[in-house]
Specification:
159 residues, disordered N terminus, alpha+beta, single chain, two-stranded antiparallel sheet
Length: 159
């Protein structure tokens, strides 16, 4: 397995298991807001995204998971040493299968979690700059996964 595939998997796993501060900081209280019903009606909620990700993991549909929910997928493909997309998806699928129980557990909790929305003032291309963070307890450990709103209205994960 090449370094790109390992990096993508490690980062996805870390985005699920990440503890502590946001890479963009927590923001000020003025930057934070609970997801309002008005915002929810405009696009997918983070809880809906977590439920959709959970269903993809349950179905072991890792290709769709990567292509639709990994918000930096196109950037990964453009890296000079990237293998062909199908090869990367195959490699990552094997690794996601190994981490399936963790992903099922955490995304199951996230589907019911309360998220705090903050603004990332330097979003990745294709993202809106909104970051949703929830705190859940998985196997006795508090974890703070993040989802990133994409311009298509869906929420995805970072590398």
């Amino acid at each position: 397995m090449n370094w790109i595939a390992r990096t993508v998997l490690a980062c996805m796993f870390l985005s699920v298991m990440a503890c502590g501060e946001s890479s963009t900081g927590e923001g000020t209280s003025a930057d934070r807001s609970a997801v309002s019903s008005d915002e929810q009606s405009k696009s997918e909620t983070p809880q809906e995204a977590a439920a959709a990700i959970l269903e993809l993991v349950k179905a072991e549909d890792y290709k769709t998971l990567i292509e639709e929910r990994y918000s930096e997928w196109q950037r990964s493909l453009a890296m000079p040493e990237s293998p062909p997309a199908e090869q990367m998806i195959e490699q990552l699928s094997l690794q996601y299968a190994e981490q399936r129980d963790v992903l099922l557990g955490v995304y199951g909790l996230l589907a019911e979690a309360e998220f705090v929305i903050t603004d990332d003032h330097t979003p990745q291309p294709g993202e809106t700059g909104r970051v949703a963070t929830a705190t859940v307890t998985y196997q006795g450990q508090e974890v703070r996964p993040k989802l990133y709103e994409m311009e298509n209205g869906r929420w995805g994960f970072h590398q």
